[in-house]
Amino acid sequence: MAFYSSGVEYGIHSLMCMVDTRGNAREMSVRDMAALQGVPYEYLGKIFTRLSRAGLVTSTEGKGGGFKLARPAELISVMDVAHAIDGEKNMFECREVRQRMAVFDGNPPEWACDGPCGVRSVMIGAQQRMEEELSRHTILDLVRKMYRKAPDTFQIEVQDWVAERRSTP
After folding, report:
1. Residue 167 confidence (pLDDT)
2. Residue 77 belongs to what domain range?
């Protein structure tokens, strides 16, 4: 089972679609992002509601309206997106198993309860390192990485596709 929902992946990729090779943001509709990426439109709409509530995107009104980044792509981390969509998660919930050993007969000795649980400490440390790593990477980092891999024509193809969608009534 995945720790983060598919919504986090959809959200990250969608925000990446909203940034060009130079790091400039572009306004896009949820419908266009869903069509461009082949993801469910209704689900992506719900994701953008969460991204908006978190202050990562703002909606624009009128013909051709949609969403734009609320701040530069270099200031939006992967962790920001994960928290906006899935909320803050704990990957581990300590059940204090160390205190429930049958040999303790319901009365664990002091040494078994002393200090933090070793298992809990390891799991909390792992979550902290994961969150630090997700915080290190921004939407702009991912966009630049993608465009380094892609042929030069890819950016033009995306721009043309978006422009064609925006000009079609």
Report:
1. 81
2. 6-88+138-167
